[in-house]
Amino acid sequence: MYYNLKHFRQNSYSRDLAVTYATSYALTPNPEYRYFPSINNNSGDCSNFISQCLNAGGLPMNYNSKSMWWYNHGTLNTKDDTWSVSWAVANSLYWYLKTNTDKAIEITDLNYLELGDIIFYENYNNVIFHSAIITSFITINGLKEPLISQHTYNALNVTFRKSYAYKGVHFFKIIIT
Question: How many domains does the chain fold into?
Fold first, then answer.
């Protein structure tokens, strides 16, 4: 597949800052943000964590009513914080990035992935249900494989391949222009 490499060169996303944030808070969530625990093994904190990583890397919050992605800290504690749906819900974050091509592009070739890029997981109902950030790479049989950090079950530098059933993965190259 052909990708317009012009987008990759004009990137103002700090992959180092995003990955530093991710590796700092992968196992112990940042207490400055509301944490969404998993309820009955359904849902959780994955996209809230990924949004924090993206914001740390330089993705600016967007309060535009047509395409919102934001988090506001409350005055007392994280219990009175507010956020957009796209900040905290995997399917909404996926569509936010997919439709804002000045922020990210979906790619299929793992060779174009870099630290700080995002992976979304799709279930058999065609719904995006999980998100993770690439924080390292390993080489297996001569092929580059991403390692991810995530929340919902908190993990640092684990394989992006899951042991549970899912329909597919979507790789997003972050390209803030």
Answer: 1
Positive or negative CA dihedral for 146, 2, 13, 120?
Answer: negative
CA distances from 169 to 87, 172, 174 (A): 19, 10, 16
Each residue's pLDDT tens digit, 63-119:
987 889 999 998 878 888 999 999 999 999 999 999 988 899 999 998 899 999 999
Each residue's pLDDT tens digit, 111-153: 899 999 999 999 999 999 999 999 999 998 988 999 999 998 8
Cβ atoms of residues 176 and 59 within 8 Å: yes
Task: Specify the CATH number for the domain of residue 154.
Answer: 3.90.1720.10
CA 132 – CA 117 distance, rounded (Å): 9
Domain membership of residue 136 as a residue range: 5-174
One-letter amino acid of 128: I
User: pTM of the predicted model, to two decimals?
Assistant: 0.91
